[in-house]
């Protein structure tokens, strides 16, 4: 590998889109010869290899947080939701717990959304990797 200058702005874009550390973003940019898009694709492919799960990052304002979480739960294609503020993980929710909380404790979710109104957060959503047949790894595991 060669030593190349990587712009901080490019590292920030890769980190914002993928949620990786500065060192991982820099490494991916070096692998991609400075191309931000290729670096993001490189990171996505690496994440897909890990434990049959891929992670999606969505930046949301506090006022949008609860609605976005409900939308993700309704779609039913996620296994875990992680709410982060900067690098700090605020809450890590297995989806089944999120469903129970949303259905049975609406006042708790309302309170959480009121507290979160002024801040900006990143939602990290873990999804099972789908194979070409459309059957996820978790579907296969649940049948055995």
Task: Characterise this structure.
52% of the residues lie in helices and 22% in strands. It is built from 7 helices and 4 strands, in the order H-H-H-E-H-E-E-H-H-E-H. The N and C termini lie far apart (44 Å). With 144 residues, it is an alpha+beta fold. It has helices spanning 8-18, 22-31, 36-49, 62-75, 95-104, 106-115, 137-142, and strands at 53-61, 80-85, 88-94, 120-128. The radius of gyration is 17 Å and the shape is globular. It has 2 domains: 8-49, Helicase, Ruva Protein, domain 3, CATH 1.10.8; 53-142. A 4-stranded antiparallel beta sheet has the order 1-4-2-3. This is DUF4342 domain-containing protein. It holds the Pfam family DUF4342. Keywords: Membrane, Transmembrane, Transmembrane helix. InterPro entries: DUF4342, UBA-like_sf.
């Amino acid at each position: 590998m060669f030593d190349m200058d990587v712009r901080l702005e490019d590292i920030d874009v890769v980190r914002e889109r993928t949620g990786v550390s500065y060192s991982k973003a820099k490494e991916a940019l070096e692998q991609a010869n400075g191309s931000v898009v290729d670096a993001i694709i490189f990171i996505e492919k690496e994440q897909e290899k890990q434990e049959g799960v891929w992670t999606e990052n969505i930046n949301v304002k506090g006022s949008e947080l609860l609605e976005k979480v409900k939308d993700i739960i309704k779609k039913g294609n996620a296994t875990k939701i992680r709410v982060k503020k900067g690098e700090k993980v605020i809450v890590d929710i297995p989806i089944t717990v999120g469903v129970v909380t949303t259905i049975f404790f609406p006042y708790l979710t309302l309170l959480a959304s009121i507290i979160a109104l002024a801040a900006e957060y990143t939602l990290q959503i873990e999804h099972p990797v789908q194979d070409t047949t459309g059957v996820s790894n978790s579907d296969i595991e649940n049948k055995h």
